[in-house]
Structures are given as C-alpha cells and as structure tokens.
Design a protein that fits this description.
Strand 2 and strand 3 (70-75) form a beta hairpin. The protein starts with a helix and ends in a 14-residue tail after the last helix. 18% of the residues are buried. With 122 residues, it is mostly helical. Helix content is 57%, strand content 11%. A three-stranded antiparallel beta sheet has the order 1-3-2. It has one domain (3-108): Arc Repressor Mutant, subunit A (Orthogonal Bundle), CATH 1.10.10.
Length: 122
C-alpha cells in the first residue's frame, strides 16, 4: 500500500458514520450485510448511507456484491490490514511503545462483535 492509498483510507475513516459502518460490519466478516439493514441499524437515509459506503469502498476498506436485489457490503479485511500495517511499520517503525499501546487497547476493547454505534446521522 502506498502513501496516497493510506491517506485515502484514513480520510475515509475520519468520519463518525463511516467509522460506525466499519465497526458494524467487522463482526459479520465476509458474510456482510445488505444496505437496507445497515441503513436501518444506523438510522440513516439511503442517499446518506450510499455516500458513506461509496467513500469507504473507493478507499479500499469495503467490498460490495449483488445478491438478487440486494447489495451486500463487507469490510475489505486486506485493505484495513494494509492501512494499519502501513501506520505501524512504515510510520511508527514498529516502535515497541506504539505496539504495546495497540496490545493494551485490544485488551480493554469491547468483546468481538459488540458494536456500540454512535448517534451521528450525517
């Protein structure tokens, strides 16, 4: 992943609704979730949701696929991983204190699959 791709991914994540989208979709993995269900869960109108989904997809953080009449969205795990890897390896040079903070945060995080979505409706 190059610098421009990482900047695009970080810019896409720098929005409460888009971060909520990633947090919502991570636990469902490759299975993904239909756009309508995402909209209902996050309380977003379809046009607003489409805007945010497109931003994440263009940044390489989401994938979409059509199943019958539904568009199913899932997190692009490789894109997320490459973004984090770039930050840890290229920017932070695997600094032990940074890596330790990542491990410490993971230990305090909510259990896998527990999603606490914000109230942003933008």
């Amino acid at each position: 992943m190059n610098r421009d791709q990482v900047l695009a991914a970080l810019a896409a994540l720098a929005h409460a609704t888009r971060l909520d989208l990633i947090r919502l979709l991570m636990p469902v993995g490759e299975t993904g979730m239909p756009a309508g269900q995402i909209a209902q869960t996050l309380g977003l109108a379809a046009p607003r949701l489409s805007f945010h989904l497109a931003a994440l997809e263009q940044a390489g953080l989401l994938r979409s696929r059509r199943v019958a009449r539904n568009v199913i969205y899932s997190v692009d795990l490789r894109g997320i991983g490459q973004t984090i890897s770039y930050l840890l390896n290229d920017c932070c040079a695997d600094h032990p204190e940074v890596l330790s903070a990542c491990t410490h945060q993971r230990a305090r995080a909510k259990p896998y699959g527990v999603v606490e979505v914000g109230t942003a409706k933008t």
